[in-house]
Amino acid sequence: MEQKNYYEILGVSPKASATEIKKAYRKLAKKYHPDTHPGDKQAEAKFKEISQAYDILGKPDKRKQYDQMKAAFDQGFRPGGFDFSGAGINWEDILRQAGRGGGRRTRTYSFEDLGGLGGLGDFFSQFMDQGASFRQARAAPQKGRDLEAELKVSFEQAMKGGKAKLTLLRKDTCPDCGGSGAAPGSRTQACPQCGGRGTVTITQGGFAVSRPCPRCYGRGTIISKPCPRCGGTGRAQAKKTISLKIPAGVSSGTRLKLKGEGEAGPGGGPPGDLLVRIRVASHPTFSRKGDRLYTDVSVDLPAAALGGKVKVPTLSGRATLKIPAGTQPGTTFKLKGQGAPSAKTGRKGDLYVRVNVIIPKKLTREQKEFMKKFSS
Question: How far apart are CA 248 and CA 128, in angstroms?
Fold first, then answer.
C-alpha cells in the first residue's frame, strides 16, 4: 500500500509553520474544489485527500502525534516485524486521545482503536500493512482470480445457438493434497510460535499490538512437508474442458460469464469466474448488422427488364424472390423474418437482398440487333 505523506500532499516541508500549512491548504482546496470541477471524480478524491491532510497537520496535537508515529515507523519498521524501542512514540497518550483510555495494565489494541484520532489510525495501518498485508492475504481464504478466454464460433452456430466446448489452463485445487498444501501422508501441525492462534503480540509501554504470525503467515498451522505437486500452495495448474451454452443470435464481442469456472481460491476460498468473449467467424454469403442480414443475388438483363423470379439464400434454405419488371441494378428487397435472431428476445430480424444485374460481355449478332432496336 502506498504510504500517505501529509506534508507531501500539501506540498510543504515537515518544518513548515502553521501559517504556511494553512496557506498551502487554501491554495490546493481552491484548485481542486468539487464546485469548480463538477463530475470530476479525480478532483473530488484529491480534495478529500487534501482535507484529510489539513485535518491532521492543521491541529497542533494531531500533528504532534502524526510526527511521532511517522518517525517511529521510519526508524523502526522492518518487513519481518516491528521494533518500537527508542522510537519516541507515546502509545499511552495516543490511545488515550483515541478514546480508549489508558492505565498500567497491558491491553491489546487493534489498528481500528486509533480511528478516534481522525485519520491517524488510517496512517498507522498503512505502515503495518507493509509487513502484514501479504501475510493476511495468504492466510485468509480469498476468491480465486477471474479468467478471460476467447471462443471462436462459426456463423451458423452463432445463428442457431447450441453447446460449445472450451479448453483452458487454470489453477485448480491440487488433486494430490486436496488443497491442504501438505504432501500426501503428512499432516499440518499447530504453529509453535503463535500456538495455533495465527497472531502474535508486541508489547510496548503497557500496551500490546497484535499482528499476523510471521512464521505461519496467520494460518495458525505450518506444513512440515509441502506437497511436491503444488509446492505447498494448495493449487496446481491443470487443463480443463468446459461446456457452455451459446445463445442463438450471439454476436462478436459478446461476453458470457460462467460463475465458478475461474481459478481456485487461495486458502480454500471460492473459485473465480470465467469471462468468455465470443468471436463469430465471417460468412461467404451473408453480412450482418444487429438482427439484420444482407446478401446479394444476380439476375440477367432480361429478368431485370421483364421481371421474374429468383432463388435467394436464407438461413433456413433457399427462398423465392419476385423481381418486378424494370428492376434497376442495386435495388434492395426485404424478406421479413429471414434475418438473424435476437440473442435477448429470440425474434428474427429481416433479410435484405441487393440485386446485381448481369450485363453480358459478348453478344451474338441477333442480340446486338435486338439491343439496337431496344435502344432506339
Answer: 53
- Which helix (DSSP H) or strand (DSSP E) does residue 303 occupy? helix 301-306
Query: Phi, psi at residue 164, to the nearest 5°?
Result: -140, 160
Instruction: Find out whether 142 and 265 touch, Cβ atoms under 8 Å.
Output: yes
Among candidate residues 185, 188, 169, 189, the one with its CA nearest the CA of residue 264: 169
Give the residue ranges of DSSP H helices in 119-259. 120-139, 155-160
- Residue 88: its pLDDT value, please? 46
- Over residues 268-287, the pLDDT tens digits come to 789 999 999 999 999 999 99
CB-based burial label for 93 (10 Å; 0-12, 13-18, 19+): middle
Cβ–Cβ < 8 Å for 218, 138: yes
The string of pLDDT tens digits covering residues 133-188 is 434 444 557 888 999 999 999 999 999 999 999 999 999 999 998 888 889 888 77
Cell numbers standing for residue 348: 428474427
The CA distance from 347 to 341, in Å, is 5
Q: Which three cell numbers stand for residue 79?
A: 518487513
CA distance 282 to 326: 33
Residue 214 identity: P
pTM recorded for the entire structure: 0.55
One-letter amino acid identity for 300? D
Please report the beta strands in the chain, taking only residues with DSSP state E, as ranges in sequence order.
77-78, 81-82, 107-109, 147-153, 162-173, 188-190, 199-204, 207-212, 221-223, 235-246, 255-258, 274-280, 287-289, 292-300, 308-314, 317-323, 332-335, 351-358
pLDDT at residue 93 in the model: 54
Report the alpha-carbon distance of residue 216 to residue 178 in Å, rounded.
19
Domains of the chain: 6-139 (1.10.287.110), 143-185+231-282 (2.60.260.20), 287-375 (2.60.260.20)
